[in-house]
Amino acid sequence: MLFLVRIIPIYISLMKLTKQGITNIKDAPKRVENATQIFESMGGKIHAFYFTMGEYDKVVIAEAPNDETVMTMLAALGSYGNVRTTTLKAFTKDEFAKILSSLP
After folding, report:
1. How far apart (Å, rounded) are the C-alpha atoms in residues 104 and 95?
2. Strands across the sheet containing 83-90
3. What pTM was estimated for this model as a whole?
4. 10-101: CATH, from 3.40.920.10, 3.40.1190.20, 3.30.420.10, 3.30.70.920
5. pLDDT 10s per residue in the chain (104 long)?
6. Domain boundaries along the sequence of the chain
C-alpha cells in the first residue's frame, strides 16, 4: 500500500510597524482580520499570530500552498504601508532530516 504525504510549507513572518502603522495602531486588529481573510482566500492558513515586545512588533506562523502565495501576500501587506516584514521558511525536524539524508 502506498501512502502519499503532502507537506505544506510553514512560514514565520517577523513584522515591524512603520510610522504609518503605529500612527494608526487602533486599526491594527481590523487590519489583522482583513489580512487573515485575504490570506485564507489565497489558500493560506494562520496558525498563530502574536503582538510582541522587542525588536519585532508582530510574529505570524502560517502555512501556504507555495512560496508564490506567500510572496503575493507579503507584497500586498507591504504596499499598504503599515508593516515591514522578514519572512522565514521553516522546516520540521523530519523535513530537515530528509534534506540531510541526501548529503554526499
Report:
1. 17
2. 45-51, 58-63, 10-17, 83-90
3. 0.87
4. 3.30.70.920
5. 454 455 789 999 999 999 999 999 999 999 999 999 999 999 999 999 999 999 999 999 999 999 999 999 999 999 999 999 999 999 999 889 988 998 88
6. 10-101
